[in-house]
Amino acid sequence: xxxxxxxxxxFVAGLAHAAGVDPAxxxxxxxxxxxxxxxxxxxxxRYFDKMAPDGVYIGTDxxxxxxxxxxxxxxxxxxEGKQAAWVFHPTRRxxxxxxxxxxIWFDExxxxxxxxxxxxxxxxxxxxxxxxxxxxxxxLAVPNEAAKKVIEVVKAAESR
Length: 160
Fold this sequence. Notes:
This protein is an alpha+beta fold. It has helices at residues 2-19, 23-41, 46-49, 68-79, 147-158; strands at residues 51-58, 65-67, 88-97, 103-112, 116-127, 130-140. It is 41% helix and 34% strand.
């Protein structure tokens, strides 16, 4: 029991430190993630290179769980020869980090052209070469008042 309490205290202390992320680091992360979104908005294949080789992307469909290279192959049809792939406009982002800044995580609200309001969270690793996205999860932002209707639509679609 004591070790559980200690672990919880250390976790909370880590979060408290993370909330006070260095403003310069937060600015670098914002620029990196904004650039990543901009690469997709302009269908630049380097979008995928900003993900770690072991990186994971989780999309909004329950089948969309990709390692980076599989995600690149799936996404190629949306990028090659196109003016834009998907366009995400961040409206809010919170950035957190470990004490040494080697691991960074963030959450963001997004306005999208095709899916409306979305939410996402990500994990970024700092390497000698710069930042790389290790994990990103995108979700539709469904108002609680609409959740029951959305669930009914999803169940109907999945039963086909």
